[in-house]
């Protein structure tokens, strides 16, 4: 794929502000599948707090493996989301998660990962003979949990494929451009027709390449929003900076698209989920 090289493009971690704000949050990023263009993954851990409650997950174009590590540990696989989702967290429970940055890095397991779009499946339904949930619950440190999961994922999940994957390289280019790349131009660089590129991408993800592009742009907007000063008199300037940086048409376009993915205005979102409160 001449002109379609991605080796030097940095990968930015997806952001879930509601989880980052949880007690004892930890995260670690590393490459877990060296066979694919986007083989990084995020490992994370947090405590739920004293009361059972629902917490917000925003679209990040990733699948999540999330485990509650209480007395009866259980796991769930959350598909990619095109809008905000609320997950119910148990009280006084530690959670451990694995977020591969690309569904193209995983074996199909008889399941098209795109079929999990906006839905979830029990971990035990896909892996009825595996006791990894209990092992994760018994592990004492975050590092031990990561090592346990890597051993499991390498054996059961890792997809070995050619590093010139069209879908994987498309993901890297879109993420590297922070959701601002022109799809038509990217398809031209791939050497394939635009129709072929779009079809292959949707087959893998269950949604369009344009929607993936929009989600990455939204994620970048969230990152800029939460990194900005909380001073009220700077709200207008912050909004203008984000609109300019992310190529939105105007303020109404930015707010409309932000609400599409989070069901909140940028100002309301920042007030609730600001990491530096």
Helices and strands in order:
Layout: H1 17-20, E1 26-31, E2 40-47, E3 53-57, E4 64-68, E5 74-78, E6 85-89, E7 94-100, E8 120-122, H2 123-126, H3 132-138, H4 142-156, H5 166-176, H6 183-190, H7 194-205, H8 209-227, H9 235-245, H10 251-262, H11 266-273
Jot down its keywords:
about 280 residues; alpha+beta; six-stranded antiparallel β-sheet; globular; Helix-turn-helix transcriptional regulator; DNA-binding transcription factor activity; HTH_AraC
Tell me about this structure.
This is Helix-turn-helix transcriptional regulator. One of its GO terms (molecular function) is DNA-binding transcription factor activity. Pfam families: HTH_18. The protein is an alpha+beta fold and about 280 residues long. It has a domain at about 15-155. The chain has eleven helices and eight strands. The strands form two sheets. A six-stranded antiparallel β-sheet has the order 1-2-7-4-5-8. It has a two-stranded antiparallel sheet with strand order 3-6. Helix 3 runs antiparallel to helix 4. It is globular and about 50 Å long. It starts with 16 loop residues before the first helix and ends with a helix.
The gist of it:
The protein is of the alpha+beta class. It has helices at 17-20, 123-126, 132-138, 142-156, 166-176, 183-190, 194-205, 209-227, 235-245, 251-262, 266-273; strands at 26-31, 40-47, 53-57, 64-68, 74-78, 85-89, 94-100, 120-122. The chain has a domain at 17-156.
């Amino acid at each position: 794929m001449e002109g379609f090289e991605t080796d030097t493009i940095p990968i930015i971690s997806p952001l879930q502000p509601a989880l980052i704000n949880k007690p004892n949050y930890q995260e670690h990023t590393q490459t877990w599948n060296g066979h694919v263009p986007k083989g990084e993954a995020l490992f994370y851990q947090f405590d739920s707090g004293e009361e059972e409650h629902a917490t917000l997950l925003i679209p990040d174009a990733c699948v999540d493996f999330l485990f509650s590590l209480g007395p009866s540990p259980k796991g769930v696989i959350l598909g990619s989301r095109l809008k905000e989702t609320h997950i119910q967290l148990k009280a006084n429970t530690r959670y451990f998660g694995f977020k591969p940055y690309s569904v193209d890095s995983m074996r199909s397991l008889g399941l098209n990962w795109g079929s999990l779009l906006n839905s979830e499946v029990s971990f035990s339904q896909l892996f009825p003979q595996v006791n990894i949930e209990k092992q994760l619950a018994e592990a004492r440190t975050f590092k031990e949990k990561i090592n346990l999961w890597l051993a499991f994922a390498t054996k059961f999940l890792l997809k070995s494929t050619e590093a010139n994957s069209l879908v994987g390289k498309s993901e890297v280019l879109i993420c590297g451009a922070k959701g601002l790349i022109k799809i038509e131009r990217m398809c031209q660089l791939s050497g394939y027709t635009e129709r072929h590129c779009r079809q292959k991408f949707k087959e893998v993800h269950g949604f369009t390449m344009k929607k993936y592009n929009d989600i990455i742009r939204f994620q970048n907007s969230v990152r800029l929003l939460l990194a900005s000063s909380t001073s009220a008199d700077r709200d207008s300037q912050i909004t203008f900076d984000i609109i300019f940086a992310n190529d939105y048409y105007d303020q109404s376009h930015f707010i409309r698209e932000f609400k599409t993915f989070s069901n909140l205005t940028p100002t309301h979102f920042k007030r609730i989920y600001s990491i530096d409160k």
